[in-house]
TrEMBL record:
<comment type="similarity">
    <text>Belongs to the FlgA family.</text>
</comment>
<keyword id="KW-0969">Cilium</keyword>
<keyword id="KW-0574">Periplasm</keyword>
<protein>
    <recommendedName>
        <fullName>Flagella basal body P-ring formation protein FlgA</fullName>
    </recommendedName>
</protein>
<dbReference type="InterPro" id="IPR039246">
    <property type="entry name" value="Flagellar_FlgA"/>
</dbReference>
<dbReference type="GO" id="GO:0044780">
    <property type="term" value="P:bacterial-type flagellum assembly"/>
</dbReference>
<feature type="domain" description="SAF">
    <location>
        <begin position="18"/>
        <end position="76"/>
    </location>
</feature>
<feature type="signal peptide">
    <location>
        <begin position="1"/>
        <end position="18"/>
    </location>
</feature>
<keyword id="KW-1005">Bacterial flagellum biogenesis</keyword>
<dbReference type="InterPro" id="IPR013974">
    <property type="entry name" value="SAF"/>
</dbReference>
<dbReference type="GO" id="GO:0042597">
    <property type="term" value="C:periplasmic space"/>
</dbReference>
<dbReference type="InterPro" id="IPR017585">
    <property type="entry name" value="SAF_FlgA"/>
</dbReference>
<keyword id="KW-0732">Signal</keyword>
<comment type="function">
    <text>Involved in the assembly process of the P-ring formation. It may associate with FlgF on the rod constituting a structure essential for the P-ring assembly or may act as a modulator protein for the P-ring assembly.</text>
</comment>
<dbReference type="Pfam" id="PF13144">
    <property type="entry name" value="ChapFlgA"/>
</dbReference>
<keyword id="KW-0966">Cell projection</keyword>
<keyword id="KW-0282">Flagellum</keyword>
Length: 139
C-alpha cells in the first residue's frame, strides 16, 4: 500500500501526459470528421478527445480552428436528414405498410423524432429518423 501511495504522489507531482486530438485545419460547424481532419499530439487538455477512431464520422456542433483541440462536448452523431430534404417515409401498422415521400421540416440524427410534411396529402407528420436516412412515421 505504501508503494502504491508513493507512486501515486510521484505521478501527481510530475503530471501524466495523455494524447489529445487537434484540428489540422479550420473545420466548420456540421462538418463530419475524417482522419485527415485530426492530429494526435502528446498533450493533456481536459474535455478533449483522445481517440481518433471514436471521433471519425462524428459531426461538429461548432467550428474548430486549425491547431485547436477537438472537444468532446462539440461532437454529435452525424445528421442523416437535413431540413427541407425530401425523404422516403414509411408507416406500418398491423401488417399494413404505406410508403410515401415527405419533406423534412427539421434536421435529424439517428433516433431523433422530427416533424415532416407528407408530400402527397400535405399533412404534417411526426417521424423517427432511421439509420438509412428514411423516416418511420409514428402513429
Amino acid at each position: 500500500m505504501r508503494m502504491v501511495l508513493s507512486v501515486l504522489i510521484a505521478v501527481m507531482a510530475h503530471g501524466v501526459q495523455a494524447d489529445t486530438l487537434f484540428a489540422t485545419k479550420t473545420l466548420r460547424a456540421r462538418h463530419v470528421l475524417t482522419a485527415e481532419d485530426v492530429l494526435l499530439k502528446s498533450e493533456t487538455i481536459a474535455g478533449a478527445a483522445s481517440d481518433p477512431e471514436s471521433v471519425i464520422g462524428a459531426e461538429l456542433l461548432r467550428s474548430v480552428y486549425a491547431g485547436r483541440p477537438i472537444l468532446l462536448d462539440n461532437l454529435a452523431q452525424p445528421t442523416l436528414v437535413d431540413r427541407n430534404e425530401v425523404v422516403r417515409a414509411v408507416f406500418t401498422l398491423n401488417g399494413l405498410t404505406i410508403e410515401t415521400e415527405a419533406r423534412a421540416l427539421q434536421r435529424g440524427r439517428l433516433g431523433d423524432v422530427i416533424n415532416a410534411m407528407n408530400l402527397t396529402s400535405r399533412k404534417s407528420i411526426r417521424a423517427e429518423v432511421l439509420a438509412n436516412g428514411e423516416l418511420k412515421v409514428l402513429p
